[in-house]
Write a structure and sequence with these properties.
alpha+beta; 1 helix
Length: about 100
Amino acid sequence: MPVVVIGSSAVYSTDEVDPGEWAHVACVHDDAANTLAVYVDGRISNEATGVPASTGGSTGTRLGAGLAGGLDDIRVYARALAATQLKALKLLLILLL
């Protein structure tokens, strides 16, 4: 189950990722709303509220915490992507495989 951690806040995907299968997992942090959402294969899986942006420190931001497997093609954007953009990105990545 993919998890994203920002500081002391964590959001877990409610969707399982099949072992040995490729999956597109994305997270979106909205600074204005203080929300953190996890998307699996272009669909929102879970969202946490009250998640401020990490300011570094000893906890920072961790992607894939507890994930049994590898991470590939990690991207960080300077803005929150919309759900439609995440779906398009997933389709683009499938074409590139």
